[in-house]
Amino acid sequence: MIEVDDVYFSYDNYSVLNGISFKVKMGEVLAIVGPNGSGKTTLLKHLNGILKPTMGSVKVFDIDTRATKISELSRRVGLVMQNSDHQLFARSVSDEINFALKNFRFSKSEIDARTRKVLNEFGLYDLKDRPPLSLSGGEKKRLCIAAVMAWEPEIVMLDEPTVGQDAVNKKNLKEIIGQLSKNGRTVIISTHDLEFLWSINPRTIIIYHGKVLMDGSLRSISLNYDTLASANLIAPQLASLASGIGLSEPPADEAQAVEMIKQWQKA
Amino acid sequence: MLNIIEVKNLTFYYSGSSRPSLENVNFSLPEGSTLLLAGISGCGKTTLLRAIVGLIPKFYAGKYEGSVYLSGKDINKMDMPEISQNVGYLFQNPDNQLFSYTVERDLAFGLENLGVEKAEAMKRIDETIQLLSLDYIREKPIFELSDGQKQLVALAGILVLRPRLLVLDEPTSLLDPKTAMNIINIIKLLKSKFGISAIIVEHRLELALEISDYILVMANGSVKVFGSTQQALNSDLQNYGISVPPVISVQRSLGFNPFELTVKDFVKRLNAR
Fold first, then answer.
1. Which of A83, A170, A192 minimises the CB distance to B177?
2. Which chain A residue has the Cα nearest residue B40?
3. What distances in angstroms separate CA A220 from CA A28, A163, B31, one per listed residue?
């Protein structure tokens, strides 16, 4: 459904993407990880057509992004930006959510229903009349995600969704990602937070200097310490715990880790 | 021991709000130690930081009761230049902090404002750029930087002022794990080498525990847990929406106490048995 084929991109003379290729299937959850400045955000902006490749091609739903308008693509590919302040502008939390719905010409009753639904889902109902810029950092982030979820794009891209999010919101976010994927939507997450991703265990692409360095399930790539280190990443705690005591398979969660350690202590 | 910060019976309502954003907050932090400030979003962490650095009540209107002492001195009797020579405050969003054209100009701004001599200013800028490995972007315009780079430059901007207390609102949120770990190590170094104190908001406890002497947990504007890191890890943090890192919860289930704060130390202890 998404096909990135040998894409190069530069801002003026500064090259960011250097021949990157990968495909994403419908309903897949894909994590994009890599060091600061490796091109993650630039890559996301190619998938909804905000940026077009200098060389190579990006096809989304079999449409070349060069052959379509951002307005058409953005209806189907939603992007939640990294910096909430770049996304928020409306006078109230409710208006922020229904702005896009109005633009996409949903009916009045549909707009109200959808706005109410995401306000509740994201714990924003009590804040619905507040000016978005008066919210705390974590609340702003939730609002940005809610505003995109409201129009239910087929592909949802989250750029650093866990920044400023406490444990409760991260758990909530995890459930939303699971729900989206169950409903057949494609979720693409750019993040540094491998601990957050651990229990989701998504397909993970490490990008480095604008190229794919590794592609596989998070658990499988977490065992390659040298590759992780070269991409400024640190193995999640359960992965380094397992390798620290010489287990070949990392535990899927904390309960499994406890069992594995007990077994290990007996042996 | 002298306290770098002492907060006494502090209550604050933002103007127009009928709910207190801070409610009878009390704690003190000994000079040279590090405090991790935790709690769910919207619980009042940033408001407390603003009060500690004097922005509340100076720049935010509202109802203010109680007091904040910085090294024993009432913060409301200090002006902003005096506070900023003692306290370095890193905002949550670096865009709100940076405004000069280049990285080097941004670092020089605060020093010029405080009337630091040019030779001394250049020396401090060089040292800070080296400490944070920013040489490669020294001449770069701020607007060309990535968010992660901006966060490092904003931190550099407060370190050049050589504050006694660092107040850091999610200092690593936009950084990749290795760069985030570097920041944590720099805070550790500043503490051991110069006795600098720090108050840090950080949701990724796996990063912050290692350098925290104390943990303060807030909910609805008031203090729910305050104690040494080991004491706090033994209390019911999940009631306040805080989840401990895997290495701690695994030790809890196995009945280990006191907790090793890093995977490395936990592995060492397991292998020693």
1. A192
2. A166
3. 17, 25, 45
